[in-house]
Each structure stands twice: as C-alpha cells, then as structure tokens.
Amino acid sequence: QDLAEMFARDVGKPLRMVERSRFADILPALRRHTAHLAAAGLSVTEERSQHFEFGPAYLSVQKVVAYNTDQLRPRNIRHLVGKRVAAVAGTSSADQLLAEQANLAELKWDEVHVADSMTLLERLSDGDYDYVITDSNVVDLAQNFFPNVGKALTLGSPETLAWALPADAAPLLVQHVKDFFSRINADGTLRILLDRYYGHIER
Fold first, then answer.
1. In angstroms, what is the C-alpha Rg of the chain?
2. Is 162:44 a contact under the CB 8 Å cutoff?
3. Count of other CB atoms within 10 angstroms of residue 17
4. Which of 115 and 199 is assigned the larger pLDDT?
5. What's the 3-state SS for 20-81?
6. Cα 125-77-22 angle, rounded to 5 deg
7. Distances from the Cα of 141 to the Cαs of 22, 68, 131, 137, 149, in angstroms?
C-alpha cells in the first residue's frame, strides 16, 4: 500500500483501493476494468504476460515449500505426497504445483480461495497444513509472526514481482508506472521500503 499511495501522489490522483477477499479475483478485475492496476505481489509469468501489461519488476522471488519447523523438513518434492498441501487459488504457486504434478501424478493439494498466502502460513503454523507453496518473500514476512514457519525446498525458476495493468491500459498510465519505478529505484526509495519489510532477513 505504501507504493500505491506514493504513486497516487506522484500522478496527482486520489487513491481508491479495491480490496479482494480472494486472490483469484484480482486479475479478472483488471480484465473487467473495475481496477486500473493491481499492486498485489503478482508474479510475472509467461502466461500472464500474454493477457496483461506489467510494470517494471521490483522484487525477485522464488517458489518455496514452506513447512512447520516443529515437524520434519521435507527433502524433496516426493515427500509432499500423501500430506496436507495447500496453495492460494489463482496464484503462480498453484500453477507450479500443476507443473510438478506432470512428473509426480500422486501429488495432491488444496487450492484455497483466500486473499493471500499469509492466511495459509498461519494455518501451517497452527498445524492445519503440512506444507504451503508460496513465494519466498511471503515466508520471509510470515516469520515475523510465525517463527515456526520455515522454507524447505525451492521449486521452479526465480520470478519477479510487478504491478499488473489491463492489456489495453492507457499508454500514459503505463508510462507513469514505468517512470515511477525508475525514480524510486534511482533515488533509493524502493530500497528503503523493501528493507522495511525484508531487512530483518539480512540482519
């Protein structure tokens, strides 16, 4: 929200946040033009790039298998078979599980309709799930609140996070987004914001 508020001030427009209770509803909202952009920690994937415009990348992340550190750490993807595995519906984490299933047919999971992975990581911490598939940065944040949540495995290739816009977004808006991220990269503002959320990892 910090970035979105800064962007709104940059372009001189009032910010109106449209909250979605389900992550899977975010991109359809862009398709229907009920939102101008999605600043929701979206991974830039090849499939999404065919249907949406993306701004500059602001963070590199990796898909991970999160586990409850009170339990045994899984050593490979086969250790997820027969376990309670979850991912947020509509995310690239769910897409990654589909890719893994192509080589491991026994792999099963729940795709849960919630707003973000933090909800699932809380349930993981409470013992409701054995494993949650999500982005590495979300686990990093969750460890501030749930110290018994850890990263066990990485899956797939690194991805970047960026704001998404409708494929037919106004060129001026697209340029505003590019200029905004160029400025906050150059003046260090982005680094300061990222350090606010993730600096504890390096310390």
1. 18
2. yes
3. 10
4. 115
5. CCCHHHHHHHHHCCCCCCEEEEEECCHHHHCCEEECCCCEEEEEEEEEECCCCCCCCHHHHC
6. 50
7. 20, 15, 17, 6, 10
Directed axis angle between helix 2-11 and helix 189-202, to 10°?
170
Structure tokens at 32: 């229907």
Residue owning tokens 């027969």: 82
How do residues 23-73 score in pLDDT, each as one tens digit? 999 999 999 999 999 998 899 999 999 999 999 999 999 999 999 999 999
Kindly list the distances between the CA atom of residue 134 and the CA atoms of 28, 57, 116, in Å, as whole numbers in the listed order: 21, 18, 9
How far separated are the first and last CA of the chain, in Å rounded? 24
Cα 99 from Cα 34, distance rounded (Å): 31
SS3 97: helix
Q: How far is CA 19 from CA 23, 40, 44, 161, 167, in A?
A: 10, 10, 21, 19, 21
Q: How far is CA 9 from CA 136, 144, 161, 171, 177, in A?
A: 30, 30, 22, 19, 12
